Amino acid sequence: MISGTRYRLTLEINRQTRLAQEIARAQAEISSQKKILAPSDDPIGAARVSQIAQAQANEEAWLRNLSVAEGLAARGNNNLTSIASALDRANELMLSARNETYSAADRAVFAQELRGIADDVASLMAARDDRGEPLFRSNAELQIPVSAGITLSPVAGYAALFEGIPATTGPAALGDILRDAADAVEIADPAARAAAITVSLDDVQAGQTRIRAARSDQGVRAARIDSIVDRLEESKITLAGQRIDIEGVDMPEAIARMQSRDLSLKAAQAIFANVNQSTLFDLLR
Question: Where would I find the Flagellin N-terminal domain in this sequence (predicted)?
Fold first, then answer.
């Protein structure tokens, strides 16, 4: 009799322990909002979640890289736009300087403004990014990894943009073209000045052509960055959904399960307490 009672008590204690464990499990699922709390809960699901987590971490890093690329591309575009405006003004000044009605003093003013434009353009070409690195690099273009096996350059290199411009006398740098234009305007001899201004005007317009092409190329680079960002943002949503499907907990079900187990445990504990109040003589009856 005593042995049977002791066996039933052991079974009841084990049942209550199991209920308490199930309640703790449900509480952990609710607090973490995950149903896979350890790999042993679902080995296949846990492995897939690990793969998704790695993919998410990679894509977060790529999105941060793309944010840097977007900033560089935007600044590159702004600088090229400013350079284009400066060249437009230089072209206007050269067209005005061809007019022989202007005095030497007037041409000196034109030359002074052209040299100021050259200085401004030089400053724009030598701009540095937020890290202190040249925006337009003189060596290889900056390559930023933005996806598995994919890198992109947000800005073209210095030489490709501002050097080797097909000037009248051969390839020339943009800064030299502008300074030569200023010098041409101040030549005293009318015939020599007219010839030099014609050459410099052609060279300035060649510079304009180069910068127009550079701005078009910069637009293509920016569009590529935007396209990859959009793709990664879509992938981010997809991966998050897949992860929730695998490890996400059904909150209403988990709460209901916890409440059900809690009621069962409390009822069992109440009954167990009443049973334990019985004396040995009561059990022997």
Answer: 20-124
Classified by CATH at the fold level, domain 45-246 comes out as f41 fragment of flagellin, N-terminal domain (1.20.1330)
Task: Tell me which residue has tokens 């009856």.
Answer: 285
Which of 144-153, 236-245, 268-277 has the highest mean predicted lDDT (pLDDT)?
144-153
**For residue 30, what are the contacts with CB-CB under 8 A and spacing of at least 6?**
249, 251, 254, 255, 258
Alpha-carbon distance of 201 to 208, in angstroms, equals 11
| Domain definitions of the chain by residue range | 2-33+249-284, 45-246
Q: pLDDT tens, 192-248?
A: 999 999 999 999 999 999 999 999 999 999 999 999 999 999 999 999 888 777 776
**How many other β-carbons are positioned within 10 Å of the β-carbon of residue 11?**
10
